[in-house]
Amino acid sequence: MMHNPMPDMTPHAPARCPLLWPDWVLDLQEVLLAQADVPPVYIVGGAVRDALRGQPVKDVDLTTQKGAIRLARIITNALDGDIFIMDEERGVARVFYRTVDGEQLTLDVADYRGDTFSDDLIDRDFTINAMAVDFLGDMSLLVDPLNGEKDLFDGLLRRCHPQAITKDPIRALRGVRQSVQFNLRIEPQTLIDMRAQAASIPQTSPERVRDEVFGLLALARPHSAWRIARVVGILDVILPPMQTITGEAWNRTLNAIERLGDILLAISPRRTDNTAAVFDLGMMVMQFDRYRAEINRYVDELWPNNRSTRSLLLLAALLHGLNDDEQGIANVEDCIDALRLSVPEKKRILACLQGAEHVLALDEASDLTVHRFWYQWGDAGLSAVLIALGLYRAHHSIEFQQTAWLELIDRTRSILAAYFDLHDEIVSPPILVDGNDLIETFKLKRGPIIGQLLTLIREAQVTKQVQTAQEALDLAAVYLAQRAN
Fold first, then answer.
1. Residue closest to 469 by CA, chosen among 438, 444, 447, 445
2. Does a structural domain hold residue 331?
3. 440 within a domain of the structure (yes/no)
4. What's the helix, strand, coil split of the chain in %, to 5?
5. Are the beta carbons of 59 and 95 closer than 8 angstroms?
6. pLDDT tens sequence across 48-91
7. Side-chain-side CA neighbours of residue 4 (13 Å)
8. CA-based nearest residue to 140, from 62, 72, 43, 24
9. CA atoms 328, 331, 336, 337: torsion sign
10. ∠ at Cα 257 (389, 297), nearest 5°?
11. How many domains in the chain?
12. What are the φ/ψ torsions at residue 86 (nearest 5 degrees)?
């Protein structure tokens, strides 16, 4: 591996902007300085990059020559936190703790990647991630052997060394994410290497690929990341069924992701006066304002694996172009399986895609049609509504019809109103009689007829034809008599 034989590891003041550290990092430095036998330790990677950019620092990576796990235990005991040994052989541990304000923070502590600290930095992925700060020294000074600060502020993503991406091809996918995340142009030779190594990405752990994919989905502009991923040759390698979506269909897919992102932003606390200034978003925000808090809680909900509903929605938007027939649904499932998603996540994505088609096919929003929608799709129905709005806007971006959009907004508002305001009346009316009641009253055997009767009664409750248990039994009696004749 050809590295710079004499990298400059001298700490120096940043040339462009000062390092801005949050109080919790400075407090942690004081805690460590007060401990005995603490080895030299450096903050590296993303935390340094974000401190230079003046962005919030939430998680910190620390590196030390040897004894990272011992250092992690020192930190854990000093902070009354929790430790997780990630790789004892390589010396990697994670510390979780809460600040006095209750904020959950994560510290990753690792031994050097190589024999020396300079080896550690130079063997990283991109120069913007190869900067460091002496955590026990002057934290206003920067260690920057590869001129990552200059690349960062020049808007350039550059690999650390010629073998950086070859050594770990997943870095090609990470490069796509970071180029969009930090608005960087990919340096030409780095781009060549990313393209060359795209085919090797599937040789890495599927879980690492999945995590990088969800990193793309978490971006403010995921559609831009997917556009670059396809140009670089990565998308069709990690999700082979996507190769069938080309030309105008691919443009619609990107448009769907962008429009869905616009919708999620417009109803989120991050919206600005300009966010909903355009007609379509403005009308939607006005109609949905009553339900914004509930929708945001739903979208921000974290699944047990810490992936968010928002990310699943955006993944569904990416895959929606495959969902056109039986073979298409199989292709969607293949993509989901390739990403090693959980069974509940898979069910949610499939349900929200099919539910979105249900929303778009509705020509009215009567109590009964809305009830049938929620009964079929359950909690995935809210995802289906959001996907449907994004798909409609994407597929009608050129010939946008205000009247049709307003009608869709009105129907979807009725769907939401039923869920949030009239749940016990329309979505899930109280059970008046159950299967056992029907079997006992009418001397029936268990079978499909029981389900048919329960559906008949439940839908009659929604339309206010049935309101008591006796009325439910009377309706069942009439149905059975007609069936007998």
1. 438
2. yes
3. yes
4. 60, 10, 30
5. no
6. 999 999 999 988 999 999 889 999 999 999 888 999 999 998 99
7. 15
8. 43
9. positive
10. 65
11. 4
12. -85, -35
